[in-house]
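dumping this here so i dont lose it again. seq + smiles for S-adenosylmethionine
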Amino acid sequence: MNILSPEIKKYISEHSYPEDGVLYELYRETNLKIMHPRMLSGAAQGQFLQLLASLSSAHSILEIGTYTGYSAICLARGMKKDGLLHTIDIKEELFDIAAKYFKKAGLQNKITQHTGDALKIIPTLTQHFDIIFIDADKKNYPRYFDLCIGKLKPGGLLIADNVLWNGKVIENPLPTDADTQGVLNYNKKVQDCEKLENVLLPLRDGLMLARKIS
Ligand SMILES: C[S@@+](CC[C@H](N)C(=O)[O-])C[C@H]1O[C@@H](n2cnc3c(N)ncnc32)[C@H](O)[C@@H]1O
C-alpha cells in the first residue's frame, strides 16, 4: 500500500531542508552497493530526526539498526556538541561503510558503533538516553520496547520507524506474520503505556514518536 503518492513525496522533499553532500553520497553508495537500500531513512525523515535531537538538546542517543549510517548521522548532527550516540547493527559487513561516512561527516568521535544482536547488547549499556530510535527487525520491536523503556530519561524520546509497515497494520495480518505482529504489538505497547505521550506520524512508512512523561 502506497500511503503517499509519488507527487506528494516529491513535493515534501522539495519543501524540506535538503540533504548535504555527505548524506547524498551515502545515499548513492548505499543504492549502488548495498542490499535493500530502501531501508535508509532518507532526506525528509533524516531532517526530522535531526530536528528532534536538536530541539530536545540531546546528549545521549541510542539507535537500534545502523544499516549504512544515514539516520545516525542525522541524529548525531542534532545532538549537543559533547553528545554521544550509540548505534547497533547485527551485520558486520555494514560496519565499514557506516564508519567511513561517520568520518566524512566529522562525527567519528560522537558515534560508537556496536556490532551484534541488539537484544544482547542493549542490556550491557549502563547509561540512560535522551533519545532511543528503534529501526531494526520488526518482529523484535516489542522486546526492544521492554529493554529500552527503563533506559529512557524522563522527558526522553522513544522513536520507532516503519510503524505502518507498508499499510499491513490494518490488513488483518496472519498470526504467523511475525514482523507485522511485532509492529502491531509495539504500537499497542506504546499506546497503552501510561509513562508515555505519543503520536503516530504518517512520515514515510510511519514514525511513532513518544515522550516519557515521568
Ligand atoms: C531499516 S535498517 C536501519 C536503517 C537506518 N536506521 C537508517 O535509517 O539509515 C535495519 C537494520 O537493522 C539491522 N538489524 C536487524 N536485526 C537486528 C538485531 N537483532 N540487532 C541489531 N541490528 C539488527 C539490520 O542489519 C539493518 O541494517
